[in-house]
Model the fold of this input.
Amino acid sequence: MLTLLLATAAAEPCVMAGPKEPPELYLLSIAPGGDLFSSMGHTALVFSGGERSQPMVFDWGAYDSHRPDLFAAFLTGELSYYLAARPLHVMQRGIQAMDRSAIAQRIEAPPERIEALYSQLLIEAQPANRDYLYRWSDANCATKARDAIDGLLDGALHTALDHPVAHTARFEASRHLWRWPVPAFAWRFITSARLDRPLSAWEATMLPERLEQSLAPLATETCELHTGRYSWAPKTPPPQWPWALPGALGVGALAAAVRTGRRRVAGALVLLCGTILSALGLGSLAVWGLGGLEGVGPTENWAMAGPQSTVLVGAGAWMLLGRPVGAGLSAASLAVGAVGLGVFLFDALPQHQSNGDIVLALLPGLLASVWTVHWFAKRAPPR
Done:
Protein backbone atom coordinates (compact mmCIF):
# COMPACT_ATOMS: atom_id res chain seq x y z
CA MET A 1 0.00 0.00 0.00
CA LEU A 2 1.12 3.53 -0.77
CA THR A 3 0.66 6.19 1.91
CA LEU A 4 0.39 9.75 0.60
CA LEU A 5 2.64 11.91 2.76
CA LEU A 6 0.99 15.11 1.61
CA ALA A 7 -1.79 14.69 4.16
CA THR A 8 -1.51 16.92 7.20
CA ALA A 9 -0.94 15.61 10.68
CA ALA A 10 -4.51 16.47 11.68
CA ALA A 11 -6.02 14.45 8.84
CA GLU A 12 -5.77 10.74 8.28
CA PRO A 13 -3.53 10.15 5.25
CA CYS A 14 -4.87 8.45 2.16
CA VAL A 15 -3.63 4.91 1.67
CA MET A 16 -3.80 3.95 -1.99
CA ALA A 17 -3.12 0.61 -3.63
CA GLY A 18 0.47 -0.11 -4.59
CA PRO A 19 1.84 -1.96 -7.64
CA LYS A 20 0.27 -5.41 -8.29
CA GLU A 21 -2.50 -4.72 -5.79
CA PRO A 22 -6.15 -4.57 -6.95
CA PRO A 23 -6.71 -1.32 -8.89
CA GLU A 24 -8.51 1.58 -7.24
CA LEU A 25 -10.17 4.71 -8.56
CA TYR A 26 -10.43 7.99 -6.65
CA LEU A 27 -12.14 11.28 -7.36
CA LEU A 28 -9.75 14.08 -6.44
CA SER A 29 -11.47 17.36 -5.47
CA ILE A 30 -9.37 20.48 -4.98
CA ALA A 31 -10.67 23.66 -3.36
CA PRO A 32 -10.60 27.04 -5.12
CA GLY A 33 -7.24 28.77 -5.20
CA GLY A 34 -5.97 32.30 -4.87
CA ASP A 35 -6.33 33.40 -8.52
CA LEU A 36 -9.39 34.03 -10.67
CA PHE A 37 -8.91 31.06 -12.99
CA SER A 38 -8.90 28.67 -10.01
CA SER A 39 -11.93 30.27 -8.34
CA MET A 40 -14.29 27.36 -9.05
CA GLY A 41 -12.04 24.61 -7.70
CA HIS A 42 -10.71 21.60 -9.56
CA THR A 43 -11.44 17.91 -10.18
CA ALA A 44 -9.39 14.96 -11.44
CA LEU A 45 -9.39 11.16 -11.37
CA VAL A 46 -6.66 9.10 -9.68
CA PHE A 47 -5.85 5.48 -10.54
CA SER A 48 -3.66 3.38 -8.25
CA GLY A 49 -2.64 -0.27 -8.04
CA GLY A 50 -2.72 -2.73 -10.92
CA GLU A 51 0.22 -2.55 -13.30
CA ARG A 52 1.01 1.05 -12.38
CA SER A 53 4.23 1.70 -10.50
CA GLN A 54 2.68 4.83 -8.95
CA PRO A 55 -0.75 6.49 -8.82
CA MET A 56 -1.66 8.32 -12.03
CA VAL A 57 -3.90 11.37 -12.40
CA PHE A 58 -6.14 12.23 -15.33
CA ASP A 59 -6.79 15.95 -15.29
CA TRP A 60 -9.20 17.67 -17.71
CA GLY A 61 -8.25 21.11 -16.39
CA ALA A 62 -5.03 21.62 -18.34
CA TYR A 63 -4.73 24.63 -20.65
CA ASP A 64 -2.06 26.89 -22.13
CA SER A 65 -1.73 29.55 -19.44
CA HIS A 66 0.78 31.50 -21.55
CA ARG A 67 -1.46 32.20 -24.53
CA PRO A 68 -1.76 35.99 -24.87
CA ASP A 69 -5.49 35.90 -25.60
CA LEU A 70 -6.40 33.69 -22.64
CA PHE A 71 -9.08 35.96 -21.17
CA ALA A 72 -10.43 36.96 -24.57
CA ALA A 73 -10.71 33.29 -25.56
CA PHE A 74 -12.72 32.61 -22.41
CA LEU A 75 -15.09 35.52 -23.06
CA THR A 76 -15.69 34.43 -26.65
CA GLY A 77 -16.24 30.77 -25.73
CA GLU A 78 -13.16 29.65 -27.66
CA LEU A 79 -10.89 28.51 -24.83
CA SER A 80 -9.47 25.04 -25.36
CA TYR A 81 -8.61 22.74 -22.47
CA TYR A 82 -7.08 19.29 -22.65
CA LEU A 83 -6.86 16.02 -20.76
CA ALA A 84 -3.45 15.54 -19.15
CA ALA A 85 -2.10 12.30 -17.66
CA ARG A 86 0.61 12.68 -15.02
CA PRO A 87 1.92 10.98 -11.84
CA LEU A 88 0.04 11.95 -8.72
CA HIS A 89 3.15 13.30 -7.01
CA VAL A 90 3.39 16.00 -9.71
CA MET A 91 -0.09 17.23 -8.87
CA GLN A 92 0.68 16.92 -5.17
CA ARG A 93 3.49 19.41 -5.52
CA GLY A 94 1.14 21.85 -7.22
CA ILE A 95 -1.51 21.44 -4.51
CA GLN A 96 1.08 22.02 -1.84
CA ALA A 97 2.64 25.01 -3.61
CA MET A 98 -0.77 26.70 -4.03
CA ASP A 99 -1.81 25.61 -0.50
CA ARG A 100 -5.26 24.44 -1.62
CA SER A 101 -7.29 21.94 0.37
CA ALA A 102 -7.86 18.61 -1.38
CA ILE A 103 -10.06 15.56 -0.78
CA ALA A 104 -9.91 12.08 -2.36
CA GLN A 105 -12.93 9.75 -2.53
CA ARG A 106 -12.62 6.11 -3.49
CA ILE A 107 -15.19 4.92 -6.04
CA GLU A 108 -16.00 1.22 -5.81
CA ALA A 109 -16.12 -0.65 -9.13
CA PRO A 110 -15.03 -4.04 -10.53
CA PRO A 111 -11.24 -4.11 -11.16
CA GLU A 112 -11.68 -4.92 -14.84
CA ARG A 113 -13.93 -1.88 -15.35
CA ILE A 114 -11.44 0.40 -13.59
CA GLU A 115 -8.68 -0.89 -15.86
CA ALA A 116 -10.89 -0.46 -18.93
CA LEU A 117 -11.56 3.16 -17.99
CA TYR A 118 -7.85 3.72 -17.40
CA SER A 119 -7.01 2.34 -20.85
CA GLN A 120 -9.72 4.48 -22.44
CA LEU A 121 -8.41 7.64 -20.78
CA LEU A 122 -4.85 6.85 -21.85
CA ILE A 123 -6.09 6.97 -25.43
CA GLU A 124 -8.07 10.14 -24.84
CA ALA A 125 -5.01 11.82 -23.31
CA GLN A 126 -2.98 11.36 -26.48
CA PRO A 127 -2.08 14.68 -28.19
CA ALA A 128 -4.36 13.92 -31.14
CA ASN A 129 -7.38 13.29 -28.88
CA ARG A 130 -6.95 15.33 -25.74
CA ASP A 131 -8.27 18.81 -26.66
CA TYR A 132 -11.84 19.93 -26.03
CA LEU A 133 -13.70 23.24 -26.08
CA TYR A 134 -14.34 24.47 -22.55
CA ARG A 135 -17.94 25.19 -21.53
CA TRP A 136 -18.49 26.14 -17.91
CA SER A 137 -21.81 24.29 -17.60
CA ASP A 138 -21.18 20.93 -19.26
CA ALA A 139 -17.58 20.60 -20.48
CA ASN A 140 -15.07 21.26 -17.73
CA CYS A 141 -12.82 19.28 -15.40
CA ALA A 142 -15.71 18.35 -13.08
CA THR A 143 -18.26 17.35 -15.73
CA LYS A 144 -15.69 15.30 -17.64
CA ALA A 145 -14.76 13.36 -14.49
CA ARG A 146 -18.45 13.03 -13.57
CA ASP A 147 -19.31 11.60 -17.00
CA ALA A 148 -16.45 9.11 -16.77
CA ILE A 149 -17.64 7.90 -13.35
CA ASP A 150 -21.24 7.74 -14.56
CA GLY A 151 -20.17 5.53 -17.46
CA LEU A 152 -18.23 3.33 -15.07
CA LEU A 153 -21.38 2.94 -12.94
CA ASP A 154 -23.70 2.30 -15.93
CA GLY A 155 -25.56 5.58 -15.46
CA ALA A 156 -26.31 5.08 -11.76
CA LEU A 157 -24.86 8.48 -10.85
CA HIS A 158 -27.04 10.34 -13.35
CA THR A 159 -30.11 8.49 -12.09
CA ALA A 160 -29.29 9.35 -8.47
CA LEU A 161 -28.86 13.04 -9.31
CA ASP A 162 -31.94 13.43 -11.50
CA HIS A 163 -33.78 15.82 -9.18
CA PRO A 164 -33.89 19.61 -8.74
CA VAL A 165 -31.90 21.56 -6.18
CA ALA A 166 -32.63 24.96 -4.65
CA HIS A 167 -29.60 26.86 -5.93
CA THR A 168 -28.94 28.40 -9.34
CA ALA A 169 -25.85 28.88 -11.48
CA ARG A 170 -25.78 32.57 -10.48
CA PHE A 171 -25.86 31.58 -6.81
CA GLU A 172 -22.96 29.17 -7.33
CA ALA A 173 -20.83 31.61 -9.34
CA SER A 174 -21.44 34.41 -6.82
CA ARG A 175 -20.30 32.39 -3.82
CA HIS A 176 -17.17 31.20 -5.66
CA LEU A 177 -16.18 34.67 -6.93
CA TRP A 178 -16.46 36.41 -3.56
CA ARG A 179 -12.69 37.12 -3.42
CA TRP A 180 -12.88 39.09 -6.69
CA PRO A 181 -15.78 41.57 -6.37
CA VAL A 182 -15.13 43.46 -9.63
CA PRO A 183 -15.03 40.33 -11.87
CA ALA A 184 -18.00 38.97 -9.90
CA PHE A 185 -19.97 42.14 -10.58
CA ALA A 186 -19.02 42.10 -14.27
CA TRP A 187 -20.04 38.44 -14.57
CA ARG A 188 -23.38 39.08 -12.92
CA PHE A 189 -23.93 42.08 -15.19
CA ILE A 190 -23.33 40.32 -18.52
CA THR A 191 -25.16 37.07 -17.75
CA SER A 192 -28.82 36.61 -18.53
CA ALA A 193 -31.79 35.20 -16.64
CA ARG A 194 -30.72 31.75 -17.85
CA LEU A 195 -28.47 31.61 -14.80
CA ASP A 196 -31.46 32.10 -12.51
CA ARG A 197 -33.34 28.91 -13.31
CA PRO A 198 -33.05 26.12 -10.70
CA LEU A 199 -30.42 23.50 -11.46
CA SER A 200 -30.77 19.75 -11.22
CA ALA A 201 -28.38 17.95 -8.90
CA TRP A 202 -26.72 16.54 -12.02
CA GLU A 203 -26.19 20.00 -13.53
CA ALA A 204 -24.87 21.35 -10.22
CA THR A 205 -21.95 18.91 -10.41
CA MET A 206 -20.36 21.25 -12.94
CA LEU A 207 -18.69 22.52 -9.75
CA PRO A 208 -16.03 20.32 -8.10
CA GLU A 209 -17.45 20.91 -4.63
CA ARG A 210 -20.96 19.82 -5.67
CA LEU A 211 -19.57 16.74 -7.41
CA GLU A 212 -17.62 15.81 -4.29
CA GLN A 213 -20.75 16.23 -2.15
CA SER A 214 -22.89 14.21 -4.58
CA LEU A 215 -20.44 11.33 -4.60
CA ALA A 216 -20.16 11.19 -0.81
CA PRO A 217 -22.93 8.54 -0.43
CA LEU A 218 -21.26 6.36 -3.08
CA ALA A 219 -17.69 6.70 -1.87
CA THR A 220 -16.32 3.77 0.12
CA GLU A 221 -13.48 5.86 1.51
CA THR A 222 -12.86 9.59 1.88
CA CYS A 223 -9.55 11.05 2.96
CA GLU A 224 -8.01 14.51 3.09
CA LEU A 225 -4.89 14.96 1.00
CA HIS A 226 -4.12 18.45 2.19
CA THR A 227 -5.62 21.10 4.44
CA GLY A 228 -4.52 24.36 2.92
CA ARG A 229 -4.92 28.06 3.35
CA TYR A 230 -7.47 28.03 0.54
CA SER A 231 -10.52 25.96 1.31
CA TRP A 232 -14.04 25.57 -0.06
CA ALA A 233 -16.28 28.47 -1.03
CA PRO A 234 -18.69 29.94 1.55
CA LYS A 235 -22.10 28.30 1.62
CA THR A 236 -23.86 31.46 0.46
CA PRO A 237 -22.81 34.44 -1.70
CA PRO A 238 -21.76 37.70 -0.02
CA PRO A 239 -24.57 40.18 0.77
CA GLN A 240 -25.66 42.52 -2.01
CA TRP A 241 -26.12 45.70 0.04
CA PRO A 242 -22.46 46.88 -0.17
CA TRP A 243 -23.03 47.54 -3.87
CA ALA A 244 -25.40 50.35 -2.84
CA LEU A 245 -22.41 52.30 -1.47
CA PRO A 246 -20.93 53.44 -4.82
CA GLY A 247 -24.43 54.34 -6.02
CA ALA A 248 -25.07 56.34 -2.83
CA LEU A 249 -21.74 58.16 -3.18
CA GLY A 250 -22.58 59.10 -6.75
CA VAL A 251 -26.02 60.39 -5.78
CA GLY A 252 -24.53 62.39 -2.91
CA ALA A 253 -21.87 63.98 -5.13
CA LEU A 254 -24.42 64.93 -7.79
CA ALA A 255 -26.80 66.35 -5.19
CA ALA A 256 -23.99 68.48 -3.76
CA ALA A 257 -23.05 69.77 -7.21
CA VAL A 258 -26.66 70.70 -7.94
CA ARG A 259 -27.14 72.34 -4.55
CA THR A 260 -24.09 74.56 -5.04
CA GLY A 261 -24.85 75.24 -8.71
CA ARG A 262 -21.54 73.81 -9.94
CA ARG A 263 -22.46 73.01 -13.49
CA ARG A 264 -19.02 71.85 -14.59
CA VAL A 265 -18.57 69.60 -11.56
CA ALA A 266 -22.01 68.14 -12.17
CA GLY A 267 -21.16 67.70 -15.84
CA ALA A 268 -17.98 65.82 -14.97
CA LEU A 269 -19.92 63.49 -12.67
CA VAL A 270 -22.64 62.89 -15.27
CA LEU A 271 -19.93 62.24 -17.87
CA LEU A 272 -18.25 59.72 -15.54
CA CYS A 273 -21.53 57.95 -14.79
CA GLY A 274 -22.49 57.82 -18.47
CA THR A 275 -19.09 56.49 -19.43
CA ILE A 276 -19.26 53.67 -16.86
CA LEU A 277 -22.80 52.72 -17.87
CA SER A 278 -21.98 52.85 -21.58
CA ALA A 279 -18.82 50.78 -21.15
CA LEU A 280 -20.70 48.10 -19.20
CA GLY A 281 -23.54 47.95 -21.69
CA LEU A 282 -21.50 48.09 -24.89
CA GLY A 283 -18.94 45.65 -23.51
CA SER A 284 -21.57 43.07 -22.59
CA LEU A 285 -23.29 43.52 -25.96
CA ALA A 286 -19.96 42.90 -27.67
CA VAL A 287 -19.35 39.73 -25.65
CA TRP A 288 -22.86 38.53 -26.53
CA GLY A 289 -22.69 39.48 -30.20
CA LEU A 290 -19.15 38.39 -31.02
CA GLY A 291 -18.61 35.42 -28.73
CA GLY A 292 -20.09 32.13 -27.65
CA LEU A 293 -19.79 32.38 -23.88
CA GLU A 294 -22.69 30.55 -22.25
CA GLY A 295 -25.25 32.48 -20.29
CA VAL A 296 -24.52 35.86 -21.87
CA GLY A 297 -27.56 37.33 -23.56
CA PRO A 298 -30.52 39.68 -23.21
CA THR A 299 -30.61 41.00 -19.68
CA GLU A 300 -32.56 43.62 -17.74
CA ASN A 301 -29.25 45.23 -16.88
CA TRP A 302 -28.95 46.64 -20.40
CA ALA A 303 -31.91 48.91 -19.61
CA MET A 304 -29.80 50.60 -16.94
CA ALA A 305 -26.47 50.44 -18.77
CA GLY A 306 -26.52 50.11 -22.53
CA PRO A 307 -25.90 52.08 -25.73
CA GLN A 308 -28.58 54.57 -24.69
CA SER A 309 -26.30 55.64 -21.83
CA THR A 310 -24.15 57.51 -24.35
CA VAL A 311 -26.79 60.25 -24.11
CA LEU A 312 -25.47 60.96 -20.62
CA VAL A 313 -21.91 61.04 -21.95
CA GLY A 314 -22.91 63.78 -24.38
CA ALA A 315 -24.92 65.69 -21.80
CA GLY A 316 -22.13 65.52 -19.23
CA ALA A 317 -19.51 66.68 -21.73
CA TRP A 318 -21.79 69.55 -22.79
CA MET A 319 -22.22 70.68 -19.19
CA LEU A 320 -18.51 70.30 -18.46
CA LEU A 321 -17.81 72.74 -21.30
CA GLY A 322 -20.27 75.20 -19.78
CA ARG A 323 -22.75 74.93 -22.63
CA PRO A 324 -26.53 75.13 -22.10
CA VAL A 325 -28.43 71.86 -22.12
CA GLY A 326 -31.23 72.08 -24.65
CA ALA A 327 -34.71 70.62 -24.40
CA GLY A 328 -33.85 67.80 -26.80
CA LEU A 329 -30.90 66.59 -24.75
CA SER A 330 -32.92 66.90 -21.56
CA ALA A 331 -35.79 64.88 -23.04
CA ALA A 332 -33.39 62.20 -24.29
CA SER A 333 -31.86 61.92 -20.81
CA LEU A 334 -35.30 61.59 -19.23
CA ALA A 335 -36.11 58.81 -21.70
CA VAL A 336 -32.92 56.97 -20.72
CA GLY A 337 -33.92 57.15 -17.06
CA ALA A 338 -37.48 56.07 -17.80
CA VAL A 339 -36.24 52.96 -19.64
CA GLY A 340 -33.96 51.96 -16.78
CA LEU A 341 -36.57 52.54 -14.10
CA GLY A 342 -39.42 51.02 -16.12
CA VAL A 343 -37.71 47.73 -16.88
CA PHE A 344 -36.74 47.39 -13.22
CA LEU A 345 -40.25 48.17 -11.94
CA PHE A 346 -42.13 45.96 -14.37
CA ASP A 347 -39.63 43.04 -14.46
CA ALA A 348 -39.81 42.98 -18.25
CA LEU A 349 -38.16 39.65 -18.96
CA PRO A 350 -40.29 36.47 -19.04
CA GLN A 351 -38.02 34.84 -16.47
CA HIS A 352 -37.19 36.67 -13.25
CA GLN A 353 -33.60 37.81 -13.01
CA SER A 354 -31.71 38.04 -9.74
CA ASN A 355 -29.82 41.30 -10.16
CA GLY A 356 -30.31 43.19 -6.92
CA ASP A 357 -26.66 44.14 -6.64
CA ILE A 358 -26.65 45.55 -10.19
CA VAL A 359 -29.75 47.64 -9.42
CA LEU A 360 -28.29 48.92 -6.16
CA ALA A 361 -25.03 49.93 -7.81
CA LEU A 362 -26.28 51.43 -11.09
CA LEU A 363 -29.89 52.61 -10.95
CA PRO A 364 -29.44 55.39 -8.31
CA GLY A 365 -26.54 56.90 -10.25
CA LEU A 366 -28.47 56.66 -13.51
CA LEU A 367 -31.55 58.39 -12.11
CA ALA A 368 -29.49 61.02 -10.29
CA SER A 369 -27.58 61.80 -13.50
CA VAL A 370 -30.81 62.14 -15.48
CA TRP A 371 -32.29 64.41 -12.82
CA THR A 372 -29.10 66.54 -12.81
CA VAL A 373 -29.16 67.02 -16.57
CA HIS A 374 -32.86 67.96 -16.46
CA TRP A 375 -32.33 70.36 -13.55
CA PHE A 376 -29.52 72.26 -15.29
CA ALA A 377 -31.44 72.29 -18.58
CA LYS A 378 -33.88 74.70 -16.97
CA ARG A 379 -31.13 77.12 -15.99
CA ALA A 380 -28.89 79.15 -18.23
CA PRO A 381 -25.15 78.64 -17.71
CA PRO A 382 -23.27 81.35 -15.81
CA ARG A 383 -21.73 84.07 -17.99
Q: What stands out?
A: The chain has 15 helices and eleven strands.
